[in-house]
Amino acid sequence: MIRLMIYGASDDLIVVREQTSPAEVTRGVEFDIYNTSEERPARLHFTDGSILKVWYGVSDLGIWRVEVEKQGGAAIVIVPAEDESRIYTDIAYVTGPDLGPVLCTCEGEEVEGL
After folding, report:
1. Residue 105 lies in a domain
2. SS3 of 85, please?
3. Which pLDDT band, with edges at 50, 70 and 90, does 114 fall under?
4. Is residue 29 part of a domain?
5. Burial, 24: exposed, middle or buried (Cβ in 10 Å; 0-12, 13-18, 19+)?
6. 93: domain range?
């Protein structure tokens, strides 16, 4: 079983990391995408068919949001950002067997990972 953790960082990075245990996060990729919004989100496509929408700047608060656009075979849990805890990003956990590389698109164009 593979568990991926997805979150936003700074104002232009979408981070995808593999979580091997609750305390250990290993390999991953970052996508550098600036000027996302709810109307113009980035989309993360997973090998199980799931698609997540990710965008920054909700109500000019500097908060990253993650939303399920399409549910594939993986289990998806989204933990919302909590301003009182100074957490400025939703965190999504995508868990499934044999999850492969993630494809990121924005406005239909593929975004290269860092």
Report:
1. no
2. helix
3. confident
4. yes
5. exposed
6. 2-99
